[in-house]
Amino acid sequence: MIRVLFVCLGNICRSPTAEGVFRDLVAREGLSDKIETDSCGTSGWHRGDPPDRRACQEAKRRGIMIDDLKSRETRDSDFKDFDFIIAMDTNNFDTLTAMSPAKHSDKIHMFLSFAPNVGETEVPDPYYGGDGGFANVFDMIDAASNGLLAHIRDTHL
Ligand code: 4NP
C-alpha cells in the first residue's frame, strides 16, 4: 500500500479538498486497493471539524464529496506511516521539515511541484478570501493531483 498525506494549516480548506480530489482520481483509476489517502493540518485549530462550507460547496460543484472528512493535526507517527507527505505552501513545508526525523524528510514535497504548468509554487490559503479563491484553489489541486498520480505510477506501481 502506498500512503499519501496532504497537509495544510487548518485541514479544513486545501488539504481536505486535495484528499477528496486525489481519492476520487485513485478510485476512478481503479487503484483504491494500492493507494491510501489522508490529510491533516500543521495547526490543531480546527481539530474534529468538517471541511469549510465553501470548500465543500466547490468540491460538490465539481462532483466530489468531502463532507465526511474531519480535521486533525499532524502527528509524529505520520512521518513513518506515509510515503508521500504533500505540503500546500512553503509555511507547511517548513513546519513539516522541522518536525520530521531526517531519515523521512525526503518524503515531504510541495504539491505544485507535480503541476509545473500551473506556474505557481504554492496553493494559496483561501480561508480569508472570497469564494473565487476556492475555485482557483480547486483547479490547482486538480492539476497537481493528476501530476502526483502520474509520478506515483512511474516510481512506485
Ligand atoms: P487551510 O485554510 O489551511 O487550507 O485549511 C485555513 C483554515 C483556517 C485558518 C487558516 C487557514 N485559520 O486561521 O483558522
What does this structure look like?
- The protein has helices spanning 14-28, 53-61, 78-81, 90-99, 132-156, and strands at 2-8, 35-41, 84-87, 108-110.
- It has 157 residues and is of the alpha/beta class.
- It has one domain (2-156): Response regulator (Rossmann fold), CATH 3.40.50.2300.
- Strand 3, helix 4 and strand 4 (108-110) form a beta-alpha-beta unit.
- The longest helix is centred in the C-terminal third of the chain and has 25 residues, at 132-156.
- The model has no long low-confidence stretch (mean pLDDT 97).
- The site of 4-nitrophenyl phosphate (4NP) has 10 residues, from loops.
Beta-strand content bin: 5-15%
Q: So what's the CATH class? A: Alpha Beta
Domains counted in the coordinates: how many? Answer: 1
- The percentage helix is 40-55%
CATH structural fold name: Rossmann fold
Distance between the termini: 10 Å
Q: In this structure, how is the largest beta sheet organized?
A: 4 strands, parallel
Going by CATH, what is the homologous superfamily?
Response regulator
CATH architecture: 3-Layer(aba) Sandwich
Helix/strand-derived class? alpha/beta
Question: What is the approximate shape?
Answer: globular
Instruction: Indicate the radius of gyration in whole angstroms.
Output: 14 Å
**Low-confidence runs (pLDDT<50, min 5 residues)?**
none
Number of strands: 4
